[in-house]
Design a protein that fits this description.
Layout lengths: L5 H26 L2 H8 L3 H7 L3 H24 L4 H15 L2 H14 L3 H27 L9 H21 L8 H13 L8 H10 L1
Helix pairs in contact: 1-2, 1-4, 1-6, 4-5, 4-7, 5-9, 6-7, 6-8, 7-8
Length: 213
C-alpha cells in the first residue's frame, strides 16, 4: 500500500477529528465509540487507529487543535490598537459564528473531566493555557498604562473565565440562544473592569498644534 503524502495525511487526520467532534457533541464521551467515529468519518478502524489509538487521543487532538486556533487569534488580540474592539471580534467568532456543536463538545468534555483523570489533564491544560495568556496580556496592558483594572489581575482573569464559561454554557444548552445582543453588553462589562486609559497626546502633537496657532 503506497504511503500517503503529508498533505493527504493531514487532511485525513483533520477529517477524523471533525467526525469525532460531531460524535462527541451529539452523543457524549461514553456513548461515542471508536466504531461510531469510523462510521461518521467513513473510514475503516485500521485507518482510524493509524492516527488515534483511543478516544482520549482524539480528545487530545481536538483540544490541541483548539489551542492552536486560539493562539493564532490571540496573537492579533495582543497587538491590536483597540483591545476591546479586538476582543469583541474574537467573541463574535466563538459565541456567534462558530457552530453550537463546538460549545456542546466543550461542555461534554468539561463534565467528563470531573470523572476521567486523563480527560481532566487534557481539558484543564487548555483552560490553563488560555488563562495564562489573558493574565499575561492584562499585565502587559497594565504595565503599558493602557488599562487601570478595578481589581487585581488574577481575580480579573477568573471573572473573565466565568463570563466566557457562562456564554458557552448558555449557547450549548439553549436551542434559541443568540449572543448578538449579549456580547456587546459583556464587552462593556469587561471594559468597565479593565478600565481602559485614554492615551495622552504626545509632546510632538502638542507642539505641532501650538505651531499652527
Amino acid at each position: 500500500m503506497p504511503k500517503l503524502k503529508p498533505d493527504t495525511q493531514r487532511a485525513r487526520r483533520e477529517h477524523i477529528l471533525d467526525a469525532a467532534l460531531t460524535c462527541f457533541a451529539r452523543g457524549g464521551f461514553h456513548a461515542t465509540t471508536m466504531q461510531t467515529i469510523c462510521r461518521e468519518a467513513g473510514v475503516s478502524p485500521g485507518a482510524l487507529y493509524v492516527y488515534f489509538d483511543s478516544k482520549e487521543a482524539l480528545i487530545a487532538g481536538l483540544c490541541e487543535r483548539d489551542r492552536a486556533e486560539f493562539a493564532e487569534r490571540f496573537a492579533s488580540l495582543a497587538t491590536a490598537p483597540d483591545f476591546l474592539e479586538a476582543l469583541n471580534a474574537i467573541g463574535q467568532h466563538y459565541f456567534i459564528d462558530e457552530g453550537a456543536e463546538k460549545q456542546r463538545f466543550v461542555i461534554e468534555m468539561g463534565i467528563e473531566a470531573t470523572r476521567n483523570p486523563r480527560i481532566a489533564e487534557i481539558f484543564m491544560s487548555v483552560d490553563q493555557f488560555c488563562s495564562d495568556n489573558f493574565e499575561a496580556l492584562f499585565r502587559r496592558l497594565q504595565e503599558e498604562g493602557r488599562i487601570a483594572p478595578r481589581t487585581d489581575i488574577q481575580t480579573l482573569v477568573k471573572v473573565f473565565n466565568v463570563i466566557g464559561d457562562g456564554m458557552f454554557w448558555r449557547r450549548a444548552i439553549h436551542p434559541t440562544a443568540d449572543m448578538r445582543a449579549v456580547l456587546p453588553v459583556m464587552i462593556d462589562l469587561i471594559g468597565t473592569l479593565l478600565n481602559p486609559v485614554e492615551p495622552k497626546p504626545s509632546h510632538s502633537k502638542v507642539s505641532a498644534r501650538e505651531a499652527r496657532r
